[in-house]
Sequence to fold (440 residues):
Amino acid sequence: MTSAPYASRERSTKERILGAAEALFATHGFAGASLRQVTAAARVNLAAVNYHFGSKDKLIEEVFRRRLDELNSRRMAALNRIAGESGTTLEDVLDAYIRPALDLSRSDGGGAAFVRVLARAYAEHNETLRRFLSDNYGHVLRQFANEFSRLLPNLAREEIYWRLDIVTGALTYAMADFGVIQRKSDVAERDHREAAADHLIRFAAAGMRNPSASNSSASR
Amino acid sequence: MTSAPYASRERSTKERILGAAEALFATHGFAGASLRQVTAAARVNLAAVNYHFGSKDKLIEEVFRRRLDELNSRRMAALNRIAGESGTTLEDVLDAYIRPALDLSRSDGGGAAFVRVLARAYAEHNETLRRFLSDNYGHVLRQFANEFSRLLPNLAREEIYWRLDIVTGALTYAMADFGVIQRKSDVAERDHREAAADHLIRFAAAGMRNPSASNSSASR
DNA sequence: CGTATTCTCAAACAATCGTTTGATTCAAAC
DNA sequence: GTTTGAATCAAACGATTGTTTGAGAATACG
Fold:
């Protein structure tokens, strides 16, 4: 029953659809990529999407779930290693949040495309998608907010969430752009990305630390 | 001939369409917002878009042109004030690039919505749109790249463009998100945005200064 | 005034969208 | 070999997309 018919093919139909959808959503967006493009790229029948996933929206959710399950468990593992410790810095927490996404963007199997899908999800303020992400991975964000609150006791909870959203959005976009531009040498690419990620984390830490009420005059 | 018939209306048909399109593109994206939504929000006939602009793509271009003409001339004015000077810092150049966009997002007449449209344009890697922006405002980017090259003589020209794209994309997204979240007090909002912008600029400067080949080990 | 031009409007255009249907093919169960 | 259920397929569904049409109303020009 759980065995897969048609399994002699290279990959299962569901996985081929998910892979093609991921790549096309990254390039053309969720509204811009049609199911006919997706099924043509996956070389499956048009009806296969609704058969296996139910609808386009459910397919979109599955594209997220496939990657975010592992991404967020890695984030949680990294956070649990440092949460509550006395020597933990803001940069450490941000690293626990960002590094798994950076690793994902470096992975071979379409992870780079998914990071661009993530950036699109941030750009689009799709309400149903945000609800899905909040319902399924809200606890991760909540745990990170807990740790940020511990390190930034002067900031209100609402302020924490706000800054975290802005900062991760900017970080996600920057990381997604890494995947677009092809570098001459792969090793140089990895080094640069690593160095840029460190700077991004330091930037994010500065943004999180920024006191709220102080007017930032005379910076130049 | 150049006088406007139907001018007794509150605003001209073209301007009403542009305003409605700007707001809807910011919310639903270019593919997600239909011309029927746009014309309904502008309370004009559906055919008015194709009559006044020719096509949806031309309308999109006009939405950009209306704001970017002034935005980029402000950028050029700010850049010309500091370009070539001996005391000019990287932060000054980035400020000349970012500050006009920040001012725009604070303006009353839909500027905040346009900043979100800008962020979408960065997220979508639409080729025709990128070509339009490059054709019409490429000289601005080129002038800024010149100044960056002067301050960062060790970086290759290609590297300058690459980093500038990433950095401005992240900055644009972060600024766009400012407009989504409504703050309790307007004065606190402005102060916070100002302070955050300063940090964003400092982050961008760090990202631009980042030496290319250095592996960033032992940051923690 | 009358003519010309500009603009608006309802209606339809062909194309594409996500989705559904019903028949057919496949692999396993008995 | 027959049956069963899952998977694939071509075809069509109604809805929506951007765009075009042609007639009509509003303004401008002589």
